[in-house]
Structures are given as structure tokens and as C-alpha cells.
Design goal:
heterodimer; A: about 210 residues; alpha+beta; Aminopeptidase; nine-stranded mixed β-sheet; 6 helices; about 25% helix; B: about 240 residues; Arc Repressor Mutant, subunit A; 2 domains; five-stranded antiparallel β-sheet; 10 helices; Acyl_CoA_acyltransferase (chain A); EC 2.3.1.184 (chain A)
Chain lengths: ~210, ~240
């Protein structure tokens, strides 16, 4: 049974091997499979400037095997949309705030794409954000993914028109965090309870928000 | 960025806001008719893509098509040969009808279908395939005699089409159906999916082989499956069991 683990700066010491495998899979999927060669690294680990102490990861584990993941990052700091994709946002008016996170590097390993792993990770994502007091999450997503989020029960508003990124029409969008969405996606995921694991030592996200925004 | 493309952005966002307030299929059709007309679209259809045993009529979410063409299309099951439908299954990206290449060798009826549509004023078209969760496949296909499809208009049309589809899906969504299989039937079928015979499964669950066969028979009836293999395939496809 897949469970989703929260990994952040507080508890990453307990997840070193899993994080290494997670970065290796990111390289395999984003560089190898999707062909984003700008991200290529000689050590086969896809790690960028946002993989720092401000990032939180939701990692889908089946026993000890990484089967998917995503990264969340505060929008009050310079983040991927503000630094690289502002042109995808209408009027370049990037959405940011203390209760808004950015989601990047979402993936599910190839052999799990037919199953419920997607819905489990999306359910854990809504639950984590609800628990942390997050109201919205921004992301750049390939257009064809949008209906999948919507069918998972997510309320997604566009932040700009579709724009070609690496040969694919992509859109900057904001996902609303809500109990309704969590209920809907949990039902699709076949979950009766929570699949979110919070290892001790993980402080809440809002405690960590740097006080750069007022 | 030109003033015109800003204009398209405003129009697309205005349309998406409007959709949120629409509660009936007819209201969505009316709003689409108004908003897509500015790009030259006169007709559109939103439909699921039929499996071999399904008829397209049962999957149409909403449509504004010339009645004569719809009758001819469905009566002749044109969806089986329609090059646009074929391309929908192969790509996740929107495309113009002219990009749906048809090979007369392998699909002799393709040309006839495209010509038939043109005779009803549907000379050009734009189609958005939808590849959703759980194998859900659908499309929104729109057409007109003379379309304004340019690199400036297409992103707006793409976004508007996607939100129109989503609104129609929400408005028409049947209330969620519970799993028709009992817990015991699910368990039986899960063992079948793992390759166990009725006798094996009976032993595992501590019941007779006959009981297991009865469970499988009941599952086949509920899922309209021809046999155990068919039932396993259907149950996995519709997420009624998990292995």
C-alpha cells in the first residue's frame, strides 16, 4: 500500500537514502523520459536551486520504494514561476503569499501510472496543505494534465493563457485547497483514512515561512 | 505582446468566469455558441470516445451539430472511421482537422466522412482530445466554414475549450456510483486476477469451489462480462478491484 511521506529540512536526516533515490528518479523521468536536457547532471541526480532547506517534499513510498513525488516551495521567496515562468502569468502578476505554495517536479514512476498512485499523491497533497493552512498552490502544468486534476475534484484556475514550454503547451495555474477536493480525490483513491505520514521532527510549514513578506 | 493577444486573454478569462455560473447543458451550449463564434466556429460536439461495444450517441455530453449530419453520422457509425476521432486517441494535444491525415488504403471511409462534414458547412475544424483519469477518453470538436486559427487565437481557444468541457462534465456528472461488487466478490475477483483457480480461491477463503464459482458468476452478471477473464479486465479498468 502506497503511503505519502512528508520530508523537509527538519526530518531529512531520516530519509537520506530515500531522498537520493527520489533525486535519481527525478533525473530518470525529467531528463531521460521527458527530455529536459537542461537539467542533466553528471551524477544522475536532478537537483536544482529550489532543493534547499525551504522545500518540502511529498514522497510516495511503497514499502521502501519511491513511486512518485512532488516538491512544495514558498511563494514569498523567489520561486520557479517568479524566476522562470512569469511570462506564463497574465500581466506577469505572479501569485504569491504566506499561504500560497508552488508545486514543482510532480511525477509518478512509469509502472504506477495506470493505478491509483496518482490519486493517493493528490489526496495527500490536499491533506498536507489543509493541515498546514495553505489556501492555494501554484504550478506550471502541461495543458493535457489539467482535466486530470479537474476530474480528481480539484478547483483549478488559470493564471494565464497556454504557452509553449519545451515544445508542450503549458499553463500556470492555481489549485484551490479545500475539504471538498480532499474528499473527492480520497474517494477516487479508495482511501478510507489518511495516507499521509508525518515522521517526528517535521514542524509545520507555517512555522518555517521566512518573514520576508508582510 | 500585441494589443490583440491581450484582447484574446481577456476574452478567454471572461468566458471561463461566465462558465462558473452556468448550471445547465443548454446554458453552456448558448455561451459556447456566443464565445466561439468570434473565431468562426458554428458547430461543436463534446463526446466520450466509444469503446468497440459502445455507441457514440450514449457518450455525447452536448452538441450543436446540423441535425441531418448528426443523424447520418450516428446511423452510419462514422465514429468508427472518423480520422478526427482516430487522431484523438493518439495525441493529447489539440489539432486542426486538416492535421488528421487519412490513409485511403487503411481507412477508405475517412475521406467520405470529412467530405460529408464539409457538405454541412463543417469545412474546417479544431479538436481538443481529453485524456482523463481512469482511462476516460473524450473530445471537444468544433468546426465552421472559415476559422480564425492563428498562433494568437489558438492558445485562447485551447483554454476556453478545456474549461467548457470541464463545466459540461461537472454539470452532467452522474452522482458517484458505489462499487457494485460486494466485498466478498471483490476478494474473489482479486484472487482470480492473481491467477488463482476457483478451487485455489475456495481453499484460501475457506469456502467451497462452488461458492467461488457462484461469486464469479454474479460478478460476470453485474459487469456484463462474458467470462472470468473479461470480468477481471473490466474490474481493473473501472477500479472496482485493486491488485
Amino acid at each position: 500500500m502506497t503511503s505519502i511521506h512528508i520530508v523537509n529540512d527538519e526530518n531529512r536526516a531520516g530519509y537520506e537514502a530515500i531522498l537520493d533515490e527520489y533525486f535519481r528518479l527525478r533525473h530518470e523521468i525529467f531528463v531521460g523520459e521527458r527530455g529536459w536536457h537542461d537539467l542533466e547532471q553528471p551524477n544522475g541526480r536532478e537537483v536544482d536551486a529550489y532543493d534547499n532547506e525551504q522545500a518540502s517534499y511529498l514522497i510516495a513510498l511503497d514499502h521502501d520504494r519511491v513511486v512518485g513525488g512532488l516538491r512544495l516551495y514558498p511563494t514569498v521567496l523567489p520561486h520557479m514561476i517568479s524566476q522562470s515562468f512569469a511570462h506564463l502569468v497574465r500581466g506577469q502578476d505572479v501569485l504569491s503569499g504566506p499561504t500560497i505554495l508552488e508545486c514543482t517536479r510532480y511525477f509518478i514512476v512509469r509502472e504506477r501510472r495506470m493505478g491509483r498512485t496518482d490519486c493517493r499523491l493528490l489526496a495527500a497533497f490536499q491533506q498536507f496543505c489543509l493541515e498546514e493552512g495553505v489556501t492555494e498552490v501554484t504550478a506550471v502544468v502541461e495543458m493535457w494534465w489539467l482535466p486530470r486534476w479537474q476530474q480528481a475534484g480539484f478547483n483549478v484556475r488559470p493564471l494565464g493563457l497556454p504557452t509553449m514550454v519545451a515544445g508542450q503547451p503549458c499553463i500556470a495555474a492555481a489549485i484551490q485547497i479545500s475539504d471538498n477536493s480532499l474528499r473527492h480525490v480520497s474517494r477516487l483513491a479508495g482511501l478510507r483514512g489518511s495516507c499521509l505520514m508525518r515522521a517526528t521532527g517535521a514542524s509545520t510549514f507555517t512555522d518555517k515561512v521566512p518573514h520576508v513578506a508582510t | 505582446m500585441s494589443g490583440r493577444s491581450l484582447d484574446y486573454t481577456a476574452k478567454a478569462f471572461g468566458f471561463i468566469e461566465e462558465l462558473d455560473r452556468l448550471a445547465s447543458p443548454q446554458a453552456i451550449i448558448d455561451a459556447m455558441e456566443r464565445s466561439f463564434a468570434q473565431f468562426g466556429f458554428e458547430n461543436f460536439i463534446m463526446t466520450g470516445l466509444p469503446h468497440p461495444e459502445q455507441r457514440i450517441e450514449s457518450l455525447v455530453l452536448l452538441k450543436k451539430w446540423p441535425l441531418g449530419w448528426y443523424e447520418r453520422y450516428t446511423r452510419n457509425s462514422f465514429d468508427r472511421h472518423d480520422p478526427v476521432i482516430r487522431l484523438c486517441r493518439q495525441t493529447v494535444q489539440p489539432f486542426e482537422w486538416s492535421e488528421a491525415r487519412n490513409d485511403p488504403e487503411t481507412n477508405p471511409r475517412g475521406q467520405e466522412i470529412m467530405q460529408g462534414a464539409a457538405d454541412f458547412g463543417m469545412r474546417q475544424g479544431y479538436c481538443l482530445p481529453i485524456h482523463g483519469l481512469n482511462g476516460f477518453e473524450a473530445c471537444l470538436s468544433m468546426s465552421g466554414p472559415d476559422l480564425d486559427l492563428t498562433p494568437q487565437t489558438k492558445p485562447a481557444i485551447h483554454l476556453m475549450a478545456m474549461y467548457a468541457f470541464e463545466r459540461a462534465r461537472l454539470v452532467l456528472a452522474p452522482s458517484p456510483r458505489p462499487n457494485p461488487l460486494t466485498p466478498r466478490e471483490q476478494e474473489t475477483l482479486r484472487w482470480a486476477a492473481l491467477g488463482k483457480s476457483a478451487a485455489d480461491t475456495g481453499e484460501i477463503l475457506g469456502v467451497t469451489e462452488r461458492t467461488i464459482t457462484a461469486h464469479i458468476g454474479s460478478v460476470c452478471a453485474k459487469l456484463s462480462a462474458a467470462n472470468k477473464t473479461h470480468a477481471v479486465a473490466k474490474a481493473l479498468q473501472h477500479r472496482l478491484i485493486e491488485i
